[in-house]
Design goal:
Elements (H helix, E strand, L loop, with lengths): L1 H19 L7 H14 L2 H9 L6 H14 L6
Length: 78
């Protein structure tokens, strides 16, 4: 269960970073991965566990975050 709490702390930290500096677009990359991959890559019992734990993710939101980083981010231009 430690992974659950660490993921929640990381998400909270990135949201704070974005609230403090809205121009830090690259922070959305990790939030996008946090939303996208649980929604598409986990199925079966693991999928049930992340859903039950409230971390099932949102595929569309994750893709929106990835596109935002691609279009406006600094670190991932290449």
């Amino acid at each position: 269960m430690e992974w659950y709490w660490n993921a929640g702390k990381a998400e909270d930290y990135l949201i704070e970073v974005i609230e403090e500096d809205p121009n830090c677009i690259d922070a959305y990359l990790t939030l996008g991965a946090h939303e996208y991959f649980p929604a598409v890559a986990l199925s079966g019992f693991r999928g049930f566990l992340v859903w039950f734990g409230g971390m099932s993710g949102d595929r569309e939101l994750g893709l929106n975050y990835f596109n935002k980083v691609k279009d406006k981010g600094i670190l991932f231009k290449n």
